[in-house]
Design brief:
This protein has a domain of 131 residues: Alpha/Beta hydrolase fold, catalytic domain (Rossmann fold, 3-Layer(aba) Sandwich), CATH 3.40.50. Helix 3 crosses helix 4. The protein has eight helices and four strands. It has a four-stranded parallel β-sheet, with helices on one face. Strand 3, helix 4 and strand 4 form a beta-alpha-beta unit.
């Protein structure tokens, strides 16, 4: 069984000729073939399900089709990681489950795999992160101590435009050094 937890609307899929931007920008050796069920940065369920996997693709709390939260949930926050843990453990004991879970996905979907695995959910057997980091401060937002001010401003600004998530730029502004806040989000 496989799990992805999304901040970017799991139902935003490649349908009717639409292809996510990363597939249009990246050089490809040939024609890309993905199903209409493929969410942004997630694996293609039309590959995994016929190969014997159950595939849970979940909108994180307050995002996409999940009910809006009273307080916007912080990106990579403890609640989100606990939700991943709880989803794995809930699904791991369902009648249709074999009890063995893996997580996979790119970028954001990779980053929350590290923190979820650190909690050691009993039914989680493997993670397969790619293009993700395990220390947000050192490897992503303040690489070498220099603030990243292009992509993150675009990404989190766009999510806020659609009504998702907190004002991360305001929350992160007082934490320009690798303080306890950033250390709490890093994975050993």
């Amino acid at each position: 069984m496989l799990l992805c937890l999304h901040p970017a609307r799991k139902d935003n899929v490649c349908k009717d000729g639409y292809m996510h931007i990363q597939f249009r920008f990246a050089r490809q050796p040939g024609q890309i073939s993905i199903s209409d069920e493929t969410s942004f940065e997630a694996p293609d369920p039309d590959f995994w399900v016929p190969n014997g996997y159950a595939f849970l693709n979940i909108d994180k709390r307050g995002f996409g089709t999940s009910p809006r939260a009273d307080e916007p949930q912080m990106y990579w926050g403890d609640e989100e990681i606990q939700d991943s843990y709880d989803a794995i453990e809930w699904a791991g004991v369902q009648q249709w489950s074999n009890g063995n879970f893996g997580m996979l996905g790119v970028s954001y979907l990779a980053m929350n795999q590290y923190r979820t695995a650190a909690l050691q959910p009993p039914h989680l057997k493997a993670i397969r992160p790619w293009e993700g980091v395990s220390d947000l401060y050192k490897e992503f937002l303040y690489y070498g101590g220099i603030p990243e001010s292009g992509f993150t401003k675009f990404l989190f600004g766009r999510l806020r435009k659609f009504g998702y998530g907190p004002d991360s730029q305001r929350i992160w502004a007082p934490h320009t050094l690798r303080d306890d806040y950033w250390k709490s989000l890093a994975v050993d």
